[in-house]
Amino acid sequence: MRKVMCTIHEGQISSPQIHDLEVMIKRVYRDRINSEQRLLVVWTEMPEGQGFTEGKPSRISWVMVEVDDNFDQQKRETAMQVISDEWARIANVSTGNLMLTIADTSQFSRLAQAMQQRIAPGARLSFMLKLIARLILSKLRHGYFEMKANA
Amino acid sequence: MPLYNLACKAVLDNDQRQHIAEVVTRTHCELTGAPAQFVNVAFMEGLPLRKDESFNVVGGVRSGGSRNLELTENLQQMMQKNIASAANVSVSAVKVTLVGVPGNWNMEGGRVLPEPGAEDEWLDRNEQA
Hints:
heterodimer; A: alpha/beta; Macrophage Migration Inhibitory Factor; five-stranded mixed beta sheet; two-stranded antiparallel ribbon; 48% helix; globular; B: alpha/beta; 27% strand; elongated
């Protein structure tokens, strides 16, 4: 299973839009990247005032998509272009509101692992259980996996 | 890109976040020569970090081009030092991990990012487009 991590700002994208964005990402992944891999999309909602670009508060969304190692660069760029354009259309924002990365699984895992390992070992189990509970609850309520940036 | 994901134990106020975001942006640009508009900082607060850490920063940065191992190590050390100073904590209470990602794996503003060192040409081209 491959993963997609989407970080968005609270109140910026509505629940139906998130749903449509997820459908779009899964479709592009199936059509342009890999039709056989299952995809897990996780949304992280960040409170206002916690995101900055150029040293100023910003509302740019950050999306990272995991693909197989040595993924073809031409296919990567085409997929990025389609996701970027479709994201802007569905979320009703300019393409400047999205920073998108399509990363080989090795680099994706290094980033994901660094983020997981920063949680204190003694707190990791309870943190992960709480996180999983939140994700399941969100899936039941909204139809997609969502968590909060803050604990 | 870069995206600095900054986790901390405490809950910061707006001024603290603003100050730290400015310091991260300035440090990155001074050391790498990247334009400030590329630099993103996201805060995650109230996280149960390791006992000896107040801040844990994971940075996804562009690799290749004009960047070598020495520059990356220098960036990591300066980022640690400057964040500690901005947040008024000891240097050892800040951990910084940098992960290099090729520039052309990223898209911003609908355009594939350049390799480090090729930003001026990229910005010129985009201004003309």
